[in-house]
Amino acid sequence: MKPTDRLLDLMAFFLKTRRMVTFDELRDAFAEDYGEGSDAAVKRKWERDKADLLALGLPLKYVAPDDDEDDGEGGYLVDRDKAYLPELALTPDETAVLYLAGLSLSAEPSFPYREALSIALAKMQLRVNASSPNNNDDEAALQGRVLIDVAERTADGAVAARLQQLEDAITRRKRVTFEYHARSSGAVSARSVDPYGLFCRQGWWALVGHSAERKAVRVFLVHRMRDLAVNAKQPGTPDFEMPTDFRLSEHSRTPAWGYDVADPVLVTLEVREEFAWLAENELRTTGEPGVGGWRRFSVETTNPDALVSWVLQLGAKARVVGPDEVRARIRSALQTALAQAGT
After folding, report:
1. Dist. CA 267–CA 260, nearest whole Å
2. Structure pTM?
3. Helix %, strand %, coil % for the chain, to 5?
4. What is the pLDDT of residue 297?
5. Structural domain boundaries of the chain?
6. What's residue 272's pLDDT?
7. Whole-angstrom Cα distance, residue 256 to residue 282?
8. Which of 117, 203, 252, 271 has CB atoms 3.0–4.6 Å from 199's, for a disulfide?
9. C-alpha dihedral over 15, 21, 24, 29, to 10 degrees?
């Protein structure tokens, strides 16, 4: 039996079984997979499968044998208190908006969870229909006031393939390697990353993971990756442990100039005092009083083009002090804008 089919059968087996299952019972139930080989080899195979089941979200737990019984034997069962999420109390409008958001994602070829999303949407459709007898009219009205930006920015079908690879690596906790291309300089650098999670913002998919080169958690744009490879050694054994304090939501709010595109650059910029609150909020740092009504900030960026774009949006209210290479990017961007305005 293929590993994927075996995992699905194991998941169905445990979910249907309400009592503890011993290893011998499991071996009998899956004789084709666990019936042959030495006890040590079979148990190693089961341990790999158990790790995969836990990674897929099935909360298996081991129940120790009862010491009061001579023939007591431990076993496995599903921790049902952890197997199900509590019911969400959504209003009809909230349900409809969530349903529309799911529809827009399910239409995107690059979304790596389309199959699971389609099943969820089918269940939600029943709730939407039940909560609103005029469902078609309500849906049309909601579509007029709900805009979800998930469109893929490029027609590069390789992004979808990379997302599938990354999803697999995240699930099995396997290290990935890739070449990373910087748009501004054209530089190409090798990366080795422990993948923690994926998010999509404004149409761009990004990977969050621990970079061996940076020795820190970084954000990487998926469309800038080339030659992506998942570590094929010991496929049933994780390459890393997820930090207990990791929260994907915290990194998904990382500003674009914090994405790992190039080597870190420390940029000094100034913002007019009346807009210092905005800069402190966006740059996530406290500035220092400058001269002549300016407030000075120091920001480390690994994506200078994004920081330049933010500065230009503020117009005369912000300026870059240094380094010269970033000031040159500002001049180049302004010259391009003036040339386009003159045509």
Report:
1. 15
2. 0.59
3. 45, 20, 35
4. 95
5. 3-83, 92-143, 158-254, 265-342
6. 94
7. 11
8. 252
9. -30
